[in-house]
Design a protein that fits this description.
The chain is of the alpha/beta class and 443 residues long. The protein has helices at residues 2-8, 92-111, 169-184, 215-228, 276-290, 309-314, 326-338, 357-362, 379-383, 401-413; strands at residues 12-15, 18-19, 25-29, 32-37, 44-52, 56-66, 117-118, 132-140, 145-149, 193-198, 203-208, 231-235, 243-244, 253-257, 262-266, 297-301, 318-323, 345-349, 368-371, 393-398, 417-425, 435-442.
């Protein structure tokens, strides 16, 4: 009976031609592109499609008939089910090489640009690196169990996992106990997610609660906190409702850029880089490309906490940090003051997706820019460059190669820059996410 069912699936064979930007194998069948999850370049696989469109299909690998020599056994026992990672079956250096190809192809295809020098990829620890993120929570009545984790592959259900190889080790170890704890709460079906943030000293879990905790819930959480050395915070509505469960949980997280002698304090809900190990080398590379020096005037757009602003200021340059969030600007000023860089750094809150030429000119003229935008990129900003707004050097840090390529097209083909150097940063091992950094120099 099972064999009959399998035959009805009409499984197809394919030889994988390359890897796409989502980490999927790509092949072409009768002129149609087929993107196959779990398949590697050069492999012969049996696959089944679950999305069928006129011009493409999306499929998953049912069986590997001829394996790539880059295929490895996933370290995580939940990999085939959990959607948190997509590339654990891919040898680590192979992942980096595939991301490099995707990066180069995206610059060429979307931006019609090619860097004069391709930088060596930056990589670091490949396991237990994710110090910030969000976990989904769902109480399943039939199992009488709270599931905590990421979505299953190809579904909106939560994967039933007992550990995770990319989360901090202490959080991974806590997963079964955390599920047990939530199952005991009176509002176990009113907690849709948990935000987590960690540093070298603390692990903070922010519970999104749709109803108030009762006295027993608070006792259970406080007991768990004391036993497992975690801090609980709660969020009942918007970001302004995030608060520690008790006074002992009111901790401030921090990370250090040792090379620059800087320490950054942040709250669990602030935006920071999820991978503190790679962030160290990313900042170093950005500074090597920007080459800030004493008495220069430099803009840092989308500055966040000042992750790049303060290292620039260490050189003696005058830096203007611009960010769209009042809360982040407040935190950035606290970090600036803590590191005694008040004389070198000023911060302004501005919406950089709607910034005008007049607003930019009011800041003065900076000969060097550092841009570190979210996934939407910095299109409005680079469009403003003209004879009056004309930096000679732009270092662009990107978390989305497509928007970097789009903005590079403007800078190179319309604004008179050359793409001098570019390279990838493996900020998110075992996923298809790609961080990169590029240097644009005025011709």
């Amino acid at each position: 009976m099972q064999e009959d069912t399998k035959l009805k699936k009409k499984l197809l064979l394919a030889t994988i031609e390359n890897i796409d930007q989502e980490g999927r194998g790509v092949t072409h069948i009768d002129g149609k592109a087929v993107f196959i999850e779990g398949a590697l370049q050069g492999e012969l696989v049996e696959y089944e499609s679950y999305v069928k469109k006129p011009s493409y299909e999306i499929a998953f690998t049912e069986r590997v008939i001829r394996q790539s020599n880059l295929r490895v056994k996933p370290k995580c026992k939940h990999f085939n089910r959990c959607g948190g990672c997509s590339m654990q079956h891919f040898e680590f250096q192979g992942q980096i090489a595939a991301k490099q190809r995707v990066f180069e192809n995206t610059l060429s295809r979307i931006g019609k640009v090619k860097p004069e020098t391709m930088l060596t990829p930056l990589a670091g620890p490949s396991w237990h690196y994710r110090y910030k993120g969000r976990l989904r929570v769902k109480f399943v009545v039939k199992k009488n169990k709270a599931l905590v984790g990421f979505n299953e592959k190809r579904t909106h259900f939560i994967a039933d996992i007992s550990s995770c190889e990319v989360l901090p080790q202490n959080l991974s170890d806590l997963m079964p106990f955390l599920q047990e704890l939530i199952t005991q709460l009176s509002i176990k079906d009113k907690i849709p997610q948990i935000e987590f943030a960690a540093d070298q000293n603390y692990l903070v879990l922010v519970l999104r609660i749709l109803e108030p905790l009762n006295t027993n819930d608070e006792w259970l959480l406080n007991t768990f906190s004391s036993q497992h050395f975690v801090q609980f915070w709660t969020q009942s509505k918007g970001p302004d409702t995030v608060k520690p469960l008790s006074r002992k949980d009111d901790v401030k997280l921090s990370y250090v850029l040792k090379e620059f002698g800087l320490e950054f304090s942040f709250m669990p809900y602030d935006f920071t880089q999820i991978n503190p190990f790679i962030n160290q080398v990313l900042v170093r590379r950005a500074m090597n490309l920007l080459k800030p020096s004493k008495d220069e005037y430099i803009f840092d757009f989308f500055c966040g906490l000042g992750n790049f602003t303060l290292p620039i200021a260490i050189s003696g340059a005058k830096v203007i940090g611009i960010e769209g969030s009042d809360l982040l600007i407040k935190r950035a000023k606290e970090c600036r003051d803590k590191n005694h860089l008040n004389d070198f750094v000023e911060y302004y809150c501005m919406n950089l997706f709607e910034i005008t030429k007049e607003a930019l000119l009011k800041l003065g003229h900076a000969n060097k820019w550092l841009i570190d935008p979210p996934r939407d990129g910095a299109f409005q900003l680079v469009q403003l460059i003209d004879d009056e707004i004309n930096p000679s050097v732009i270092v662009y840090v990107s978390c989305n190669p497509s928007t970097l390529a789009r903005d590079a097209q403007v800078l190179v083909n319309e604004k008179g820059y050359k793409l001098d150097k570019a390279g990838i940063v493996n900020m998110f091992p075992h996923t298809s996410h790609l961080e990169s950094v590029a240097l644009f120099v005025k011709k």
